[in-house]
Amino acid sequence: MSIRRTARPRRVVAAVSLTAALVLAVTACGSDDGGKTKDPVSSSSSSTPNKSSDGDKDTKEDTSAEDNVDTNVKLAEARGEDGMLLVINQVKRDSGGFVTVQGELKNQGDVAANPAHWSGNETEIVNKNLNSVGGATLVDKAGKKRYYILRDTEGRCLCTGGMTAVQPGSTLSVFMQFPAPPSTTTEVDLNLPTFATTSLKISG
């Protein structure tokens, strides 16, 4: 069974069976970069076409997994290269045994951003999920574990993928799904390639 690229996170519980293979011990959890010595696993799901608003105002590409995320809620921010900003709007623990992170990538710089940089370096994932946020990981420092993005049976990640270059002034909605840390873990570090590490509190 495989999950369609347009599947929403609440419909992908089957992928949680991959949890054991995607959870590894953190080798440098005390470092500022959340342990970048080990490149994260990634993959992708498809995106919807660009949607422009009000002429020359910001263009927003909607590739989020859910429609009810309040983008006015800003739980955390992480600065990236070339003027990119990652804003986290929701971090939710679901009953299926996974955590969904949703947010927006904003290009506040002067040049287009290449999404291939956010896929990570893990060969299998990059081959199937280039131009995705599949390189993201969650780090549970207390539990000394790193959690990689979940994948379906065909190796596609449960995350936003199939992205084109993010143009200056554009905003891209993104989501990422991970195996859920133990219920006692309420705070984790999010690492996305080329972005600074940011701490997240898990709700639900």
Q: Top keywords for this entry?
A:
about 200 residues; mainly beta; 6-stranded mixed sheet; 5-stranded antiparallel sheet; 2 helices; 11 strands; about 30% strand; globular; disordered N terminus
User: Terminal Cα separation, in Å?
Assistant: 28 Å
How would you describe the oligomerization state of the chains in this entry? single chain
- Report mean pLDDT, rounded to a whole number: 76
Report the principal-axis shape. Answer: globular
- Gyration radius from CA atoms, angstroms: 16 Å
Structural class: mainly beta
Main beta-sheet strand count, sense and barrel state: 6 strands, mixed
The low-confidence runs, each spanning 5 or more residues with pLDDT under 50, are: 1-22, 24-64
% residues in beta strands: 25-35%
H and E string: HEEEEEEHEEEEE
The total strand number stands at 11
